[in-house]
User: What shape does this take?
Amino acid sequence: MRMRSFWKRFRWRSLVRVWAVFMAMAMVLFAESMGLHYGATTIKLHYLDRNKAIPERNAMADVRPRNLMLIDSSQDGVTDAVDMFDQIFLDMKVGTTVVDIAKTPASALPSFAKYDTVVVAMPTLDPLGNGLARLMSWVRRGGNVMFAMTPSKTGYFDAISQSIGVDATSGNYKLTTSIIPGSEFMLGGGEAYKITDPFESSLAVSLSDKATVEAVSGSGRTPLIWRADTGEGTSVVCNIGIYGKVMRGFYASAYSLLGSATAYPVINGAAFYLDDFPSPVPSGNGKYIKRDYNMSIAEFYSRVWWPDLTKLAERYGIRFTGVMIENYGDDTHDAPVRQSDDSQFTYFGGLLLKQNGEIGYHGYNHQPLVLPNTDYGNEYGYVQWPSRKAMTASLKELIAFQKKVLPAASGSVYVPPSNVMSSEGRAVVGRISQIRTVASTYLPDGSHLPYVQEFGVASDGVVEEPRIVSGSMVGDSYMRMTAVSELNMHFVSTHFMHPDDLLDPDRGAAEGWAVYRNGFERYLRWLEKSAPSIRMQTGSETAAAIQRYSGLTVDLKTHQRDWTLDLGNFTDEAWLMFRANNGVPGAVDGGSITHLVGNLYLLKATSGTVRIERKQGHAATAQAAARNSGTAIVGHARKERS
Assistant: This one.
């Protein structure tokens, strides 16, 4: 009673209440900074043991070739196309025999009956001679052929043009500035994707009614991919004329139009990286941050940038993977020195783990793992490491520092600074047991410096997980093209951004965070619309998915009432794209199936053998009829003659 009476008479009690509120807030922030409110990230898909993860080429060593690729290396552009298809068929796990007409007489071609499909990768068909007539006769009896390169108008082409859906052609070529895949043909279809450095690469043709157009130019006047029934078989023509990494998904999708059905392994994962996070936050003000928010850099990160990313994560199911930098020094010669101020690491790292995100490794400092034999030229002002021993010591210090400041973190993914890493640096990384994955870049930049990757497992057991796109993607047509291509090639999306993008005008700082954020969200909306079934994952979960994808092989057999898939090197789960060209999928034994678009499905396998009921119907024909009745660009592509 006395205490209550005293409290009523106490004149400063309102200030005490304010003080108590501030103390409570301070305790919450202290708890956050100490990491007391979060636990270890919940990982939904775990790594396989290193010795159980199989590189793709090892997996394909015993696969019987079911595809024959005919090339003529003496013709212009063929080498580029062959390089592209070599990787496409490796990734699709299509066993392929390559025959070079420049070195093998047409009379010595193998029997087409030994194969399920034939891919012709040469623009001028004349060198095939009588072999072309034999090929088309085989197709009419039920074979499947894809003419993979923009054809040249010659007598041999004219002789088969009616069989592959071509009504007429002037022989001229059209400028192809963009491509519109059909909305029922590919994920992300129905919109135009710009082609970087376009040229007159597509043959001007008009098609007959037997052709089903699957992709057209941005103008709608030039068919770029079409399918035709040729007797009892199928012909597919690719009239794009551009062969490179960013186009793989379009050619893979075209190939999947062959036969009764096509199934190929995919990754099924979307990972989002935050480079240089957590890291020492720059002091002071950023020009454009101060302009737009009147805040210091540190205030902006904690009060605007991270809350906005958290909202996007909640809305789209993202689980960010941050990669840590201990300091921004350039000392590569002295022994690593422990970072003394760890408050920002515990605070921002704790927020990331609270979001059920993941933290990986970016570097002890921001110096790429290269030796003095790497010449940066005018590209970067980085400092080389004097030895492999120095690089190893820097990585071990980073790993130890992360374990000290964020004990609940379990880093396993390494991202090279600026995506730069030498072969010697890559060898060092492969010997660090804590590092299971390297996530560098998918696209080359024209220099020798980036560590450019393919999705898969390396010979040392490290997972290769390239990042495909980056930043806000505002107005970047090259990355948009790559994004849609990889969604259809590997059913994957890997993206990265930096906290300090808003400090660098070259990365969108002048436009401001609002423009950057809205551009990023537009990409997320596109991804959600195009691939609602894709799994939102951390970097290590996507790496685990890549392990399962890398070793998987597929043997598809078509029967009257079902399709049967025998999966080589199956572990616990697998994901595949499945296109039903003749028949409609029904009940599934050994897995489950999800409809994507048109006659394209996502198959989850839970057994090494999967049986899919094959219902009556020609899915491609029915869906093409629906497309043609409602899509003007297809009608234009068929009717216009250039």
Notes: Residues 15-36, 620-642 have pLDDT under 50 and may be disordered. The CA atoms of residues 471 and 506 lie 11 Å apart.
